[in-house]
Amino acid sequence: MNHLKLKWAIGLFSVLSFAWSCSPEGSKDNLLLLSNLLSGNANGSSASSLKALSTTVTVGSVSFPLSTNGRYIVDSNNKRFKLKAVNWYGASDTHQVVGGLDQQPISKIISLIQEWGFNAVRLPFSNKMLHDTTVVPNDYIAANPQFAGKIPLEIYDLTVQALTDAGIVVVLNNHTTFSEWCCGYDYNGLWYHTGSTFAYNQSTDMWQSDWIMMINRYKNNKLVAAADLRNEVRTQRKGDTYIPDSPNWGSGDVNDWHKAAQDLGNLVTIANPDILVIVEGINWWGLVPIVGSGERPHLKPVKDLPIHLRLSNKLVYSAHNYGYIGPNNNGDDTTSGNNIKYRDMDLNTFRSTIYSEWGYVTDPDYYYTSPVWVSEFGASPSTTLDTDKEWLKRLVDYLIERDMDFAFWPLNGNDEWGLVSSDWSRTLKDDWRYQDLGRLLSTTGNQGQSILADHFSNLSIGNGDDNSSTLASDWDNGANKGTCPDGYRMNGLSTNYKALCTDTNYGILWNSNQSYNVQAVNETGTRYHGTGDWAGGFTKYECPQNYVVAGFSKRWWGTSGILCEPSNRSLGNSCRTVWFDRGDNRSSTRGGDWASGSYKGQCADNEYVGGVAQKNGGASALLCCR
């Protein structure tokens, strides 16, 4: 694999010829656009009532659009759709069009994708490509004269159309900012770049605007089913220097990938409520990879701080895995010392490592449970290392055992790791990789089966709003608010301002009119459930009968109110008090440890929260009813 080789020096040390983990391969106007999207003024969308577009398209046995249900991607009939993809790159490289168009007609290349058995393509683009008005030279499209005279984005359009016309799902992938070979210690590690090196600066606002343009561009094509927000977020060069600029997860600053992904993900679902939002974990943070520095966290931070979209059934996480890298190894022995690589791990270490990095997210019944798409993995057919072959076998075993979605890297015949011949005329099923890749593609798992799942989600409002609902109203003005996903009810609360939401036992409860009631700090303390003073000496916020608590709020002094949503059915009125001011009091442990390190109360699975009690600002008790 021809990785980008770089030479650089900083301070007292130097790093030579290293590669990262990845594959070989108008400001005011922007702010106005984003403001319009958030306020529901763009393209007729409404932030207050995000609903899937009404049109469905059926291809074979699959009905689009796609959504998620627990740890699975499902179609519009709630049948599992297994994303079996291949990466087809080129649009993020200097050519700015997918590979192979100079060798074979696009219809021939698509037939090879189908021959392999892939049902989807991860299709990279660079931000620079989107704005390049230079006509693509004929040399790059020689076998496709119908593309003559077109600019890169127009050829990307035609590639998308050809794939979806053939019934192949397309995942839009923002791979790089600049159109250059990815992914080293360069200017593409973060989603923005400021500096003069390439005379192309990109702000976070510009990145968001590019994405909204792409979402709107393919909005009416239901097989353009997902938006992969950014490839391999990692430490990059700061400005025009060699100083490391590291991403983080949750700090709230300009390098906060959690915030950037969540903000853009919500904008994407406002522009197109049908599309899946794919968020890859952090590929590397800390210093650039020298001996003993930096880490590859992938999705580890999700356990402490999940992504919360206002359309909670549109989130998919993503991770990559290659044999030649490791948790603290960038793939180059010179700069990574003896830090272990995935291919050199024993079986138990390998399995426990990838489970902790990303596999755990697919465990059911947790507040973070979501699908995980392993959107890059691959190996060279010419390797002489038995450890490479064993690594691929182990990874495929894991993907089959966990029934996970995947995307092989790459299709490209001009890549030594590719799955088609160098002239793009035939599939390569005659090398050692086919034994494992073939069984991965032929294993259907739960594909096509209806999915039944309970759902859990946590809220955290210690540092600001956490809105997992399409409800856009500021229902407690001036307070930090946490709102459960649409139709979920609150099932637990902690002393550190975290909550557990669920739909278990009852399913979706919110009345279709999406009205609500707020019991806030100025309430009179009316009792609705005939329970008397269920928390004597404490301030109580209690929902009316047949309403459920679906959110909570706090001000500087503490808990200040609850959001009550009307139920779509009559609810029982037998209630009890669950105290958690002096320790955990959980009638159910489902959902996992959703408020680690804090006292928490949790109702039983067949109960709903009818009220919250607090004293001196601190949440102390729940009114659990059935």
From TrEMBL:
Organism superkingdom: Bacteria
Short name of one Pfam family: Cellulase
SUPFAM superfamilies attached to this UniProt entry: (Trans)glycosidases (SSF51445)
Ranges where the Glycoside hydrolase family domain occurs: 87-414
UniProt key word Hydrolase: yes
Key words, A-Z: Glycosidase, Hydrolase, Signal
Keyword check for Signal: yes
Family classification: Belongs to the glycosyl hydrolase 5 (cellulase A) family.
Descriptive protein name: Glycosyl hydrolase family 5
Organism field: Leptospira semungkisensis
